[in-house]
Design a protein that fits this description.
The chain is an alpha+beta fold and 581 residues long. It folds into three domains: 205 residues, FAD/NAD(P)-binding domain, CATH 3.50.50; 152 residues, D-Amino Acid Oxidase, subunit A, domain 2 (D-Amino Acid Oxidase, Chain A, domain 2), CATH 3.30.9; 141 residues, Glutaredoxin (3-Layer(aba) Sandwich). It has 13 helices and 27 strands. The two termini are 40 Å apart. The protein binds flavin-adenine dinucleotide (FAD). Flavin-adenine dinucleotide (FAD) binds next to helix 1, strand 2, strand 8 and helix 8.
């Protein structure tokens, strides 16, 4: 068994990466997923080293802008929600806006589409706009605040091999020297082009990439800030002052990176290989003072790896699945991988997790959810070859000259076109079912109880439920806290009625070293409609009942991945347990 640094006083901390170093988990890639995993592990006292190719001084290209309500709940659990909420300009807004051109007419607006300050009834958090250049530094500082986390920049990982119950990760440091880190586990968070995944020969299964190349520019311009209608974080620009740009995306999609002078544009006139062409395109749009900071060319693609685990190596984030930027799903899905995997690694390294936690449940749970998201984005996996049955991006009729006209006819054209645009984009921004409603039914570490599924038919409607396998619901407690604030770092048993026999359950948990907190929350009823609800460290319901199970050990062994007889393996049926009534 790999032992933690905390218990192994004579093992020095991995402080410098000269020669071979040891840690418990090596993370490849310090994007949002790698950093969230490092924070999750750091908060649990697990030693980890993060190896990142990029130099720290290089700002990250602004993608991954929209942080979902569920991601914010995890960040709240880790004490980071407040800083993330303030990362982007707080007095600006979070609207999606369509304009004829920069400085032209506003054609459509979806208020609070991407960041919303209105309190919600289903969560103590709200979605937030935090592009990578604002978000990643918060994650970096948080990760570094843990003594057990080491971040190393400028390290290009070349390969990971498995030997002697450990992995060996090899890379090149900033000066070209070889760097080796040995760990109990490796997690590849190295993005869509994951070298670790490629070296492991794990394919990405999905329809062919879209036959387009999107060019994106990250630029600085004070002038753009004067031209856009205030309050937007995403602007569809339909053309230039001289008329519409006849592409499916008009003259481009622009996002606010800091709400002042930093912007990112995906646009038809840009060329990532030619800065002059891009600058000319930006100026033609009205960004007369544009300074080009960085460029990218990319191909929207969709796919998923058939395995998220290869021996001691796990795949997470874009390394495991790729979606199109539509709906802001990429970063949030990847972060959810990290939050699922973090506690399972801790449980295994500390000895209380059973083999099924890492062997089966991580892949099962996260592969299932990522597949659902790809289906939502129009991919059909029901045939032997996955195929795209809907466009993965919302397309609407190209704008025409009538939108540029003045007077009542122009106004009428803009209103009509704007209505259609809003209708085509609506589901992209209002989808609590995707964000909060995803489930781990059939997981080998969830005790299904045979109750009916919550209604998941409507994208815009999330039905809170304590049915095992789903997110433990938020209930505003009488003292102003959320139920979510009462969950501990281990398992939490929420009791809504006094229970004398809870000590027996605690005893069984202690005997297995399963960390368990008991919370008596009568005001969580009736949403918590069973007297006992057992919540996992990542805030999912693992089991519920109205009394102590006859064999508490059976429940505890299943949720910690140590139960091997499972009639429902891979299905969504009922976990067989009985209760004392
Ligand atoms: C143009 C664009 C716009 C997007 N907009 C959004 C959006 O609005 N919302 C959203 O949710 N998602 C968006 N996405 C997707 C989002 O960027 C990704 O889903 C997200 O960044 C994935 O995070 P990650 O940590 O898995 O990977 P990444 O963010 O790609 O991070 C991977 C890290 O690994 C490092 N790395 C790679 N190889 C090595 C190596 N060999 N050794 C060491 N380090 C290595 C990289 O330098 C990088 O820092 C967008 C993507 C693109 C391309």
């Amino acid at each position: 068994m790999w032992r933690s640094r905390n218990r192994l006083c004579d093992r020095p901390r991995v402080a410098s990466l000269q020669g071979e170093n040891e840690t418990e988990v090596v993370i490849i890639g310090a994007g949002p997923v790698g950093l969230c995993l490092a924070i999750e592990l750091g908060s649990r006292g697990v030693d980890c080293v993060v190896l990142e190719q990029r130099a720290r001084t290089v700002p990250t290209f602004p993608t991954a802008n929209h942080i979902s309500v569920r991601s914010m709940e995890h960040l709240r659990r880790l004490g980071l929600a407040e800083s993330v909420r303030k990362a982007f300009r707080t007095d600006w807004g979070g609207d999606w806006i369509a304009v004829t051109y920069l400085g032209g007419h506003e054609v459509a607006r979806i208020p609070d589409a991407l960041a919303d300050s209105t309190p919600r009834s289903d969560s103590p958090e709200r979605e937030v706009w935090a592009p990578k250049p604002c978000f990643d530094p918060i994650l970096e500082s948080a990760a570094e605040s843990f003594a057990s986390v080491t971040l190393r920049y400028g390290v290009d990982v070349e390969g990971v091999s498995e030997q002697d119950h450990s992995v060996r990760c090899l890379g090149r440091g900033p000066k070209g020297g070889e760097i080796a880190v040995r760990a109990a586990y490796a997690v590849a968070c190295d993005g869509a082009g994951s070298r670790v995944r490629q070296a492991s020969e794990v394919p990405v299964v999905g329809p062919p990439p879209l036959p387009i190349r999107v060019h994106s520019a990250f630029f600085r311009s004070k002038r753009v800030g004067e031209l856009v209608p205030p309050g937007g974080v995403q602007y569809s620009i339909l053309g230039t002052a001289s008329g519409p740009t006849k592409t499916p995306f008009g003259a481009g999609l622009m996002v606010a990176v800091d709400g002042h002078e930093l912007w990112r544009l995906h646009g038809p006139g840009l060329d990532a290989q030619n800065a002059d062409t891009s600058l000319a395109a930006l100026r033609a749009l009205g960004a007369s003072d544009a300074e080009l900071l960085d460029s990218r060319a990319w191909t929207p693609s969709q796919g998923i790896c058939p395995r998220f685990r290869i021996g001691r190596v796990f795949l997470a984030g874009d390394a495991a699945h790729v979606v199109t930027p539509f709906g802001g799903l990429g970063v949030n899905t990847g972060m959810a991988d990290a939050f699922d995997l973090g506690w399972k690694l801790e449980a295994t390294l500390r000895g209380w997790g059973g083999a099924r936690l890492l062997d089966e449940s991580y892949h099962y749970e996260r592969h299932r959810v990522a597949t659902e998201l790809l289906e939502y984005q129009g991919v059909d996996f029901s045939q032997s070859e996955p195929r795209r049955i809907r466009p993965p991006l919302p397309l609407y009729d190209a704008p025409d000259e009538s939108l540029w006209e003045g007077g009542p006819s122009g106004d009428a054209a803009r209103v009509a076109y704007g209505r259609g645009l809003v209708a085509s984009r609506g589901d992209e921004f209002q989808k609590p079912q995707i964000d909060l409603g995803y489930r781990y039914d059939g997981s080998p570490v969830i005790c299904a109880d045979g109750s009916p599924q919550p209604d998941r038919t409507e994208l815009r409607r999330y039905q809170a439920s304590t049915r095992p396998g789903g997110r433990a619901p938020h209930v505003a407690l009488d003292n102003g806290q959320s139920t979510l604030d009462r969950f501990g770092p281990g398992f939490t048993l929420v009791l809504t009625r006094p229970a004398d026999d809870v000590a027996a359950f605690e005893r069984q948990a202690r005997a297995r070293n399963v960390p368990l907190r008991v919370e008596f929350l009568p005001d969580a009823a009736p949403t918590y409609d069973h007297a006992w609800t057992l919540i996992r460290p990542d805030g999912f319901v693992a089991w519920r009942g109205n009394a102590l199970p006859v064999e508490p050990a059976t429940v505890l062994d299943r949720i910690r991945g140590a139960a091997f007889s499972d009639p429902n393996r891979g299905g969504t049926g009922t976990f067989a347990y009985s209760v004392v009534t």
